[in-house]
């Protein structure tokens, strides 16, 4: 399709080759919103084009119109994953929003331990990105039980729409500088040396996290049991108000009585609509 020899010059040449009209951007925005709940604001138009230019050139698309038509009728999972990866920012780190983890350890876990007579804790990290959040939760749980959890099922479901970040999460390999905020005891007990620049999560902790691909825009969640804790932090910043309210309602319907929902500090829930009760900033409970 493309004659790449004509496109091998500078990024300015590439920029001249591709344009996205207002109508094309509107179509893309509607497609993304309908399928993934993500709302692309008008000011994101230039950013979207810049992120897709190299991809379109490498895959021989003549124009954004051609790429958009391909996307709308595509059953190519890799192409759809690429779309999601390019319109979202998978930025996270260990111990992000530390107050949440302290509350989880000091308040939530003691409550669940006393409540769950069947020794079954159901925890979901929704929008888990590259795995730092669910691995942190697994380490907190292991430390909380002091090695006395052999009869407990505390496995964490960790989901994301991006296969790329899930692949990174499953490997569990992290550079040393990303682990700087972790307690030294955790680095010793829950990680192993991978190479001179990286550590890898121990099998003991990996086995406590189940990674799955999942789109939060599914109209009905397929889970057989409800959750005691749902972490969905810094995900709803991409959603418009209606989508966010509908998602929070689905979370509520899939939360056990007494269970918790954690959202990002920069996010908010409409308290006049939700049935959750706000217990501390960005933490909600089903009562």
- The CATH superfamily of the largest domain turns out to be Vaccinia Virus protein VP39
Number of separate structural domains: 2
Succession of helices and strands: HHHHHHEHEHEHEEHEEHEEE
Nearest-integer average pLDDT: 86
Cα radius of gyration in angstroms: 21 Å
Q: What is the terminal-to-terminal distance?
A: 59 Å
- Biggest sheet, in brief? 7 strands, mixed
Which percent band covers the strand fraction? 15-25%
Oligomer: single chain
| Structural class computed from helices and strand pairing | alpha/beta
Biggest sheet strand line-up: 6-2-1-7-8-10-9
CATH topology of the largest domain: Rossmann fold
The level of helicity is: 40-55%
Q: Which architecture of the largest domain would the CATH scheme give at its second level?
A: 3-Layer(aba) Sandwich
The rough form would be described as globular
**Topology, number of strands:** 10
Q: How many H/I helical runs? A: 11
Low-pLDDT segments: 1-16
CATH class of the largest domain: Alpha Beta
